[in-house]
Design brief:
The protein contains 2 helices and 11 strands, in the order E-E-E-E-E-H-E-E-E-E-E-E-H. By secondary structure, the chain is mostly beta strands. It has one domain: CheA-289, Domain 4 (OB fold (Dihydrolipoamide Acetyltransferase, E2P), Beta Barrel). The strands form 2 sheets. A 6-stranded mixed β-sheet has the order 8-1-2-11-10-9, with no helix packed on it.
């Protein structure tokens, strides 16, 4: 039996686009994917926090990943989605340009970014994955949620 068929090595990620970049996040952290939501703005929050929504009784902060990563804001269109992530009991909605697919990656397909740089701003990045001739930046959603909760 081939080692690559071992379930231990395979991880699944939701692949999504922000600008011309493709990102991925651990599928086990995804609660739901919604079409565009209309968050209520909360005063004195950072620019990248678009506000909060009440979704099925949960108040969820909504973050623009474009603004968080220093990209210009764009109008929502038919492809725009909000991915609701759950980590422990915390929920965070992240607005993305489009959700592509669920990808299954082997550990050997993921390169660490520490081999590229030790920049602390890359704490949000778990690694870079090679998949079907594409490069997918894998995000550390736990780190994003934890930082957001610490600021509140």
């Amino acid at each position: 039996m081939d080692d690559r068929s071992s379930n231990k090595e395979i991880k699944q990620f939701v692949a999504f686009k922000v600008g011309d970049q493709e990102f991925g996040a651990d599928i086990h952290k995804v609660s739901i994917i919604e079409k565009t939501l209309n968050p209520a703005r909360v005063p004195t929050t950072p620019d990248y926090i678009k506000g909060v929504v009440n979704l099925r009784g949960d108040i969820i902060p909504i973050m623009s990943i474009r603004i968080k990563f220093g990209l210009p804001e764009i109008e929502a269109d038919d492809d725009t989605r909000t991915i609701i992530f759950k980590f422990n009991d915390a929920l965070l909605g992240v607005i993305v340009d489009a959700v592509d697919e669920v990808v299954s990656l082997h550990e050997e397909d993921i390169d660490s970014v520490t081999t590229i740089t030790n920049d602390r701003s890359l704490d949000y990045i778990l690694g870079i994955a090679k998949y079907d001739g594409r490069l997918i930046t894998l995000l550390n959603i736990e780190k994003m949620i934890t930082e957001l909760m610490d600021k509140q």
